[in-house]
Protein backbone atom coordinates (compact mmCIF):
# COMPACT_ATOMS: atom_id res chain seq x y z
CA UNK A 1 0.00 0.00 0.00
CA UNK A 2 1.43 3.37 -1.03
CA UNK A 3 2.49 5.54 1.87
CA UNK A 4 0.45 8.74 2.36
CA UNK A 5 1.67 9.89 5.78
CA UNK A 6 4.12 12.78 5.54
CA UNK A 7 5.99 11.76 8.69
CA UNK A 8 6.74 8.31 7.22
CA UNK A 9 7.72 9.50 3.72
CA UNK A 10 11.04 10.49 2.18
CA UNK A 11 11.48 13.76 0.30
CA UNK A 12 11.18 12.06 -3.08
CA UNK A 13 7.96 10.33 -2.06
CA UNK A 14 6.47 13.60 -0.80
CA UNK A 15 7.35 15.45 -3.98
CA UNK A 16 5.93 12.69 -6.18
CA UNK A 17 2.57 12.68 -4.39
CA UNK A 18 2.49 16.48 -4.18
CA UNK A 19 3.11 16.82 -7.91
CA UNK A 20 0.41 14.25 -8.64
CA UNK A 21 -2.07 16.07 -6.38
CA UNK A 22 -1.05 19.20 -4.48
CA UNK A 23 -3.23 18.63 -1.44
CA UNK A 24 -2.39 18.30 2.25
CA UNK A 25 -4.68 17.01 5.00
CA UNK A 26 -4.36 18.20 8.61
CA UNK A 27 -6.26 16.10 11.20
CA UNK A 28 -7.12 18.09 14.35
CA UNK A 29 -8.36 16.19 17.39
CA UNK A 30 -8.13 16.16 21.15
CA UNK A 31 -7.25 14.03 24.14
CA UNK A 32 -10.51 13.44 25.95
CA UNK A 33 -12.02 10.87 28.28
CA UNK A 34 -14.48 8.61 26.44
CA UNK A 35 -15.51 6.38 29.32
CA UNK A 36 -14.26 2.86 30.16
CA UNK A 37 -14.63 1.49 26.65
CA UNK A 38 -12.97 3.96 24.27
CA UNK A 39 -9.47 5.47 23.87
CA UNK A 40 -8.53 8.99 24.93
CA UNK A 41 -7.31 9.66 21.39
CA UNK A 42 -10.64 8.90 19.72
CA UNK A 43 -11.08 12.39 18.26
CA UNK A 44 -7.78 12.38 16.40
CA UNK A 45 -7.66 8.67 15.59
CA UNK A 46 -10.92 8.86 13.63
CA UNK A 47 -10.03 11.84 11.45
CA UNK A 48 -6.48 10.61 10.86
CA UNK A 49 -7.89 7.37 9.46
CA UNK A 50 -10.40 9.26 7.31
CA UNK A 51 -7.64 11.55 6.03
CA UNK A 52 -5.40 8.61 5.12
CA UNK A 53 -8.21 6.84 3.27
CA UNK A 54 -9.08 10.08 1.46
CA UNK A 55 -5.45 10.57 0.43
CA UNK A 56 -5.27 7.05 -0.99
CA UNK A 57 -8.51 7.46 -2.93
CA UNK A 58 -8.42 11.11 -3.99
CA UNK A 59 -4.73 12.07 -3.75
CA UNK A 60 -2.66 14.15 -1.39
CA UNK A 61 -0.51 13.78 1.70
CA UNK A 62 -1.59 13.45 5.35
CA UNK A 63 0.30 15.44 7.97
CA UNK A 64 0.63 14.32 11.60
CA UNK A 65 -2.48 15.04 13.66
CA UNK A 66 -2.66 17.89 16.14
CA UNK A 67 -4.25 16.84 19.40
CA UNK A 68 -4.75 18.85 22.54
CA UNK A 69 -7.01 18.65 25.55
CA UNK A 70 -10.49 20.12 25.26
CA UNK A 71 -9.78 23.80 25.89
CA UNK A 72 -13.31 24.35 27.19
CA UNK A 73 -12.26 22.54 30.36
CA UNK A 74 -9.12 24.59 31.03
CA UNK A 75 -6.48 21.88 31.28
CA UNK A 76 -8.53 19.47 33.43
CA UNK A 77 -10.69 18.03 30.66
CA UNK A 78 -13.34 16.14 32.62
CA UNK A 79 -16.92 17.10 31.88
CA UNK A 80 -18.82 18.74 34.73
CA UNK A 81 -21.74 16.34 34.22
CA UNK A 82 -19.41 13.31 34.53
CA UNK A 83 -16.87 14.68 36.99
CA UNK A 84 -17.23 12.15 39.81
CA UNK A 85 -17.15 9.18 37.46
CA UNK A 86 -14.09 10.54 35.69
CA UNK A 87 -12.28 11.09 39.01
CA UNK A 88 -13.00 7.52 40.07
CA UNK A 89 -11.91 5.97 36.77
CA UNK A 90 -8.75 8.04 36.44
CA UNK A 91 -7.97 7.95 40.17
CA UNK A 92 -7.10 11.65 40.29
CA UNK A 93 -7.60 13.99 43.27
CA UNK A 94 -10.86 15.89 43.42
CA UNK A 95 -8.76 19.06 43.66
CA UNK A 96 -7.62 18.72 40.05
CA UNK A 97 -10.95 19.32 38.31
CA UNK A 98 -12.15 21.63 41.06
CA UNK A 99 -9.14 23.88 40.40
CA UNK A 100 -10.93 25.09 37.27
CA UNK A 101 -14.42 26.60 37.13
CA UNK A 102 -16.21 23.79 35.33
CA UNK A 103 -19.55 24.28 37.02
CA UNK A 104 -21.85 27.26 37.64
CA UNK A 105 -23.75 27.85 40.87
CA UNK A 106 -26.86 26.26 39.32
CA UNK A 107 -24.96 23.03 38.69
CA UNK A 108 -24.69 23.44 34.93
CA UNK A 109 -21.37 23.38 33.05
CA UNK A 110 -19.79 26.82 33.29
CA UNK A 111 -17.36 27.26 30.42
CA UNK A 112 -17.44 31.06 30.78
CA UNK A 113 -16.84 31.26 34.54
CA UNK A 114 -14.04 33.60 35.67
CA UNK A 115 -10.60 32.09 36.14
CA UNK A 116 -9.84 31.35 39.75
CA UNK A 117 -6.88 33.33 41.14
CA UNK A 118 -3.45 31.78 41.64
CA UNK A 119 -2.53 31.16 45.26
CA UNK A 120 1.16 30.30 44.79
CA UNK A 121 4.32 32.09 43.64
CA UNK A 122 4.13 33.65 40.16
CA UNK A 123 5.78 31.88 37.24
CA UNK A 124 8.42 33.65 35.16
CA UNK A 125 6.73 32.22 32.05
CA UNK A 126 3.10 31.53 33.02
CA UNK A 127 1.24 28.96 30.96
CA UNK A 128 -2.20 30.01 29.70
CA UNK A 129 -4.95 29.05 32.13
CA UNK A 130 -7.89 31.15 30.97
CA UNK A 131 -10.28 29.93 28.29
CA UNK A 132 -9.42 32.81 25.97
CA UNK A 133 -5.68 32.24 26.33
CA UNK A 134 -5.99 28.52 25.66
CA UNK A 135 -8.23 29.10 22.65
CA UNK A 136 -5.63 31.49 21.24
CA UNK A 137 -2.82 29.02 21.91
CA UNK A 138 -4.66 26.16 20.19
CA UNK A 139 -5.64 28.25 17.17
CA UNK A 140 -2.07 29.47 16.81
CA UNK A 141 -0.77 25.90 17.03
CA UNK A 142 -3.03 24.93 14.13
CA UNK A 143 -2.08 28.07 12.19
CA UNK A 144 1.62 27.36 12.61
CA UNK A 145 1.05 23.86 11.28
CA UNK A 146 -0.71 25.30 8.23
CA UNK A 147 2.24 27.61 7.63
CA UNK A 148 4.62 24.65 7.93
CA UNK A 149 2.59 22.73 5.34
CA UNK A 150 2.69 25.81 3.12
CA UNK A 151 6.49 25.91 3.36
CA UNK A 152 6.63 22.24 2.36
CA UNK A 153 5.03 23.31 -0.91
CA UNK A 154 1.36 22.48 -0.35
CA UNK A 155 -1.06 24.91 -1.96
CA UNK A 156 -4.35 23.24 -1.04
CA UNK A 157 -5.01 22.19 2.55
CA UNK A 158 -8.03 20.53 4.16
CA UNK A 159 -8.37 20.62 7.94
CA UNK A 160 -10.29 17.73 9.52
CA UNK A 161 -11.44 18.47 13.07
CA UNK A 162 -12.48 15.33 14.92
CA UNK A 163 -13.74 16.93 18.13
CA UNK A 164 -17.07 18.76 18.31
CA UNK A 165 -15.79 22.15 19.57
CA UNK A 166 -12.77 22.25 17.22
CA UNK A 167 -14.19 23.54 13.90
CA UNK A 168 -14.21 27.19 15.09
CA UNK A 169 -10.57 26.89 16.15
CA UNK A 170 -9.74 25.51 12.71
CA UNK A 171 -11.49 28.32 10.84
CA UNK A 172 -9.85 30.88 13.13
CA UNK A 173 -6.49 29.25 12.41
CA UNK A 174 -7.12 29.54 8.66
CA UNK A 175 -7.51 33.29 9.06
CA UNK A 176 -4.43 33.63 11.29
CA UNK A 177 -2.39 31.58 8.82
CA UNK A 178 -3.42 33.73 5.84
CA UNK A 179 -2.59 36.94 7.70
CA UNK A 180 0.87 35.70 8.63
CA UNK A 181 1.73 34.53 5.13
CA UNK A 182 1.47 38.17 4.09
CA UNK A 183 4.25 39.11 6.53
CA UNK A 184 6.93 37.69 4.21
CA UNK A 185 6.82 38.24 0.45
CA UNK A 186 9.11 35.23 0.02
CA UNK A 187 6.27 32.99 1.18
CA UNK A 188 4.22 33.82 -1.90
CA UNK A 189 0.42 33.68 -1.89
CA UNK A 190 -1.41 31.77 0.82
CA UNK A 191 -2.56 28.23 0.18
CA UNK A 192 -6.26 27.61 -0.31
CA UNK A 193 -7.72 26.10 2.86
CA UNK A 194 -11.01 24.68 4.04
CA UNK A 195 -12.35 22.90 7.13
CA UNK A 196 -14.26 19.62 6.69
CA UNK A 197 -16.14 18.39 9.79
CA UNK A 198 -16.69 14.68 9.31
CA UNK A 199 -19.58 14.43 11.77
CA UNK A 200 -21.66 16.75 9.58
CA UNK A 201 -21.07 14.33 6.71
CA UNK A 202 -21.89 11.47 9.08
CA UNK A 203 -25.34 12.92 9.67
CA UNK A 204 -26.20 12.14 6.06
CA UNK A 205 -25.34 8.48 6.67
CA UNK A 206 -26.84 8.15 10.16
CA UNK A 207 -29.85 10.51 10.51
CA UNK A 208 -30.04 9.90 14.28
CA UNK A 209 -26.98 12.13 14.66
CA UNK A 210 -29.14 15.10 13.74
CA UNK A 211 -31.19 14.72 16.94
CA UNK A 212 -28.49 15.67 19.45
CA UNK A 213 -24.73 15.89 19.85
CA UNK A 214 -22.87 12.64 20.45
CA UNK A 215 -20.06 11.32 22.62
CA UNK A 216 -18.78 7.81 23.41
CA UNK A 217 -21.82 6.36 21.63
CA UNK A 218 -22.51 3.54 19.20
CA UNK A 219 -21.67 5.67 16.17
CA UNK A 220 -18.40 7.12 17.45
CA UNK A 221 -17.36 3.79 18.95
CA UNK A 222 -17.98 1.94 15.69
CA UNK A 223 -16.06 4.47 13.61
CA UNK A 224 -13.18 4.23 16.10
CA UNK A 225 -13.20 0.44 15.74
CA UNK A 226 -12.44 0.95 12.05
CA UNK A 227 -9.93 3.75 12.59
CA UNK A 228 -8.00 2.10 15.42
CA UNK A 229 -8.72 -1.65 15.61
CA UNK A 230 -8.50 -3.14 19.07
CA UNK A 231 -8.94 0.10 21.00
CA UNK A 232 -12.70 -0.12 21.69
CA UNK A 233 -13.61 -2.43 24.58
CA UNK A 234 -17.36 -3.02 24.35
CA UNK A 235 -17.16 -5.71 27.03
CA UNK A 236 -16.33 -3.01 29.60
CA UNK A 237 -19.74 -1.36 29.27
CA UNK A 238 -22.29 -1.75 32.10
CA UNK A 239 -24.38 -4.86 31.47
CA UNK A 240 -27.42 -3.44 33.28
CA UNK A 241 -29.23 -1.25 30.74
CA UNK A 242 -30.64 0.82 33.59
CA UNK A 243 -27.12 2.06 34.31
CA UNK A 244 -25.82 4.94 32.23
CA UNK A 245 -22.71 4.40 30.15
CA UNK A 246 -19.99 6.69 31.56
CA UNK A 247 -19.13 9.55 29.16
CA UNK A 248 -22.11 8.75 26.89
CA UNK A 249 -23.81 12.04 25.98
CA UNK A 250 -23.76 14.80 28.60
CA UNK A 251 -25.20 18.22 29.35
CA UNK A 252 -28.00 19.06 28.74
CA UNK A 253 -29.22 15.54 27.95
CA UNK A 254 -28.16 13.79 31.13
CA UNK A 255 -26.21 13.97 34.38
CA UNK A 256 -24.31 11.16 36.09
CA UNK A 257 -26.47 11.43 39.24
CA UNK A 258 -29.83 12.48 37.81
CA UNK A 259 -29.92 10.36 34.68
CA UNK A 260 -31.64 11.49 31.50
CA UNK A 261 -33.15 14.94 31.50
CA UNK A 262 -36.97 14.51 31.37
CA UNK A 263 -37.10 17.63 29.19
CA UNK A 264 -35.69 15.46 26.39
CA UNK A 265 -37.98 12.48 26.85
CA UNK A 266 -39.02 12.81 23.21
CA UNK A 267 -35.43 11.87 22.25
CA UNK A 268 -35.28 8.76 24.41
CA UNK A 269 -35.61 6.50 21.36
CA UNK A 270 -32.53 8.16 19.88
CA UNK A 271 -30.60 7.92 23.15
CA UNK A 272 -31.39 4.19 23.26
CA UNK A 273 -30.53 3.60 19.59
CA UNK A 274 -27.13 5.31 19.91
CA UNK A 275 -26.32 3.78 23.28
CA UNK A 276 -22.97 2.00 22.68
CA UNK A 277 -24.56 -1.24 23.92
CA UNK A 278 -26.99 -1.09 20.99
CA UNK A 279 -24.77 -2.60 18.33
CA UNK A 280 -21.36 -0.97 18.37
CA UNK A 281 -19.52 -2.93 15.66
CA UNK A 282 -16.86 -2.71 13.01
CA UNK A 283 -19.44 -3.59 10.35
CA UNK A 284 -21.62 -0.62 11.29
CA UNK A 285 -18.52 1.57 11.51
CA UNK A 286 -17.39 0.68 7.99
CA UNK A 287 -20.77 1.70 6.58
CA UNK A 288 -20.42 5.07 8.31
CA UNK A 289 -16.82 5.61 7.19
CA UNK A 290 -17.64 4.72 3.58
CA UNK A 291 -20.51 7.20 3.59
CA UNK A 292 -18.28 9.94 4.98
CA UNK A 293 -15.59 9.23 2.38
CA UNK A 294 -18.13 9.37 -0.44
CA UNK A 295 -19.17 12.83 0.74
CA UNK A 296 -15.55 13.84 1.20
CA UNK A 297 -14.70 12.74 -2.31
CA UNK A 298 -17.20 15.23 -3.72
CA UNK A 299 -15.81 17.96 -1.45
CA UNK A 300 -12.20 17.27 -2.49
CA UNK A 301 -13.03 17.31 -6.18
CA UNK A 302 -14.88 20.61 -5.92
CA UNK A 303 -12.18 22.11 -3.72
CA UNK A 304 -9.37 21.21 -6.13
CA UNK A 305 -11.46 22.54 -9.01
CA UNK A 306 -11.73 25.88 -7.22
CA UNK A 307 -15.46 25.56 -6.61
CA UNK A 308 -15.30 25.88 -2.81
Quick recap:
With 308 residues, the protein is an alpha/beta fold. Helix content is 40%, strand content 9%.
Features:
two-stranded antiparallel sheet, five-stranded parallel β-sheet, Rossmann fold, alpha/beta, globular, 308 residues
**Main sheet record:** 5 strands, parallel
Question: What is the string of SSEs from the N terminus onward?
Answer: HEHEEHHHEHEHHEEHH
Tell me the β content: 5-15%
Number of strands: 7
Looking at the overall shape, the CATH architecture is: 3-Layer(aba) Sandwich
Helix content: 25-40%
Mean pLDDT level: 91
Low-pLDDT stretches: none
Shape descriptor reads globular
Classification by helices and strands: alpha/beta
Question: CATH superfamily, called what?
Answer: Creatininase
Under CATH, the topology is which?
Rossmann fold
Cα separation of the termini = 30 Å
Count of spatially separate domains: 1
The total count of helices amounts to 10
Please compute the radius of gyration using only Cα atoms: 21 Å
Q: Would you state the CATH class?
A: Alpha Beta
